[in-house]
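Workshop exercise sheet. Pairs work together: one partner reads the sequence aloud, the other fills in the structure field after running the prediction. Swap roles for the next sheet.
Pair: D.N. / O.F.
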Amino acid sequence: MDKKPFVIRKFLALLLMVALSSAMFLVLYNFDNKYTKTAHQAINGALYVSEADWTDNPVRYLRDGWRYYSDRLLTPETLKKESDNYQYISIGEESNFAMGDSRRSPHGSVSYALTLYLPEEVHSYAIELPEIYSAYRFYINDKLKLQMGEPDADDYKDQTQCRVITFEASGKITLLLAVSNQSWVYSGLVYPPAFGESLNIYTIRGLRFGVCLILVTVTLMLAIFSFYIAIRTRRGNNIWLFFLLCLLNAVFTSYRVVHGILPLPVQPWYWIELVSGYLVTLLVVLLHNRICDIKRMARVVSGILAGSVCVLAFFYGLFASHLTLPIMLAFSNLVFGFKLLTALYLLFTGLVAVRRNIDKARILLYADILYACAFVWDRLLPKYEPIFSGWFQEWGSFGLVLAIGVVLGYDVAMGYRHSFVYAEEHRQMKRQLSIQVENLRQINEKVEESAKLRHDFRHHLRTLMTLAGEERCEELENYIRGITEINEGTRLGRLTDNVELDALVQYYSNLAHSSGIQFRARLSVSEVLHFPIVDLCGLLGNLMENAVEACQRQQTGDKTIFIAGRTQDGQIEFVVDNSFNGELKTRGEKYLSSKRNGLGLGISSVLETVQRYDGVINIYADKKGFHAELSLPLEIEQGRF
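Structure field:
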């Protein structure tokens, strides 16, 4: 068989996943990005906005043209006295107060100022201040509109929250933000504020909050469900690791909800967010190794590497207030290398698992591609800050969490299915044992009757000789007929040469006759079958048990069961037909149980057995009754399964 078309199809499927992932991130970059929204920006510290501008862009993100006063914590009064000792910056270019100079401290105090020239008519406006690190005062003109924490050096106290400030204004206004940071690795205004009419600002904020809440809710529900499954089934460590993964991912992605509701200090909350993000990567690597059945050495090395980065992140966040710019840059480069290695490692191990035909590995590989594309586009498109959704890496991690959840969920579902099927098979084995015991009892009774008959046979011979000598032909004939009837009663009736199948069919034949059901059997099965007899009896026992129960529910018409079987051309074939009341519960092409919700356990066990031995089964119903036709290959090795 030429495998080339199959390989080409798999390769094209992987390329399609790369294209779809890249398209997703490009769409996010162009349509959900504060830096790609087309709106006039401030130039040299001033932004002019006309009525037409508001019509075209009711919300704008104040990215460019901020006046930046280094090492100064200004007020409106001191701002007016400042000379030209400032510089213009764009928000997001630098993440701390060092401004790329390794000789400067990344901590300290600065002030940001921006002048807006609004329409002369008074309007109601709103400005959304993102998380600003780590304590600040915000002024509009001469009025203090908001204070978070205490930015003064002597009484410094950090506190952050995403807040919205509404105000009425016209003409010229000045925005002043005085910030101090002694607590975190980020400093000052890192994310652009949103400015616009109140309704639009609150609408965007609500949509962002809703998207984040949905994602967090989904991961929390997965965590709760996996915790329940782990407790209920007492399965291996995979489910527990997945529970921790979902829980930590919910913590890592909940910042928009948490910081939108609560004013919080930097420690320990931002430290928890930082560490939880790296722990998510660690757990993804561990679960990925387990699912893909990676060799022990690779598991140990990858686990130690990811765990070491988590430890570094732990101390990095814990001692954030004491870090210098070179240490921050070193950690940033280390994280870049770690994420690159992680993406390549997940892709490689995913490809190896697919090549080895590991179950459901393809789903993981697609998620690995999404994660790798998220990393690549995050580096190719650095100027990205989401408006509604999440960062590229968050989407990549969320995709991996869902993929791992699907794989583990499938394993749990199949485990439940197999447990039900095996429970049914166990029940059938116990039934088969009781059938064999009953059959043995009947055989013993027949043997005892035969022994009595042999013991009494000399007396019968004397009687026959006497009747023959006296030529009493009529009495002789009647006596011989009586002896024949006694002998017939001691014969062992066999429906097939195979002892186990004969006992099984005899049992259901007696059960059917006791319920007023006509039972017919035509079996041409050899005494020795090259097929696991326990599985075969379990399969036929389920079919005949269902047939008896269907006839017992039947209220009108003749109740009949017919079973036929034969061995032919290396196959063993059976047909089981029965009448029924004409009512069937179906879902699509599947027949559901008449005693419980869902697919019947007996049918599930039958299908499981047929599939296990590469057999064929056809189950259908018509006006004549319910029919099951199956064919199984003989010459099955007993240790094969």
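Discussion prompt: The CA atoms of residues 69 and 86 lie 5 Å apart. What would you look at next?
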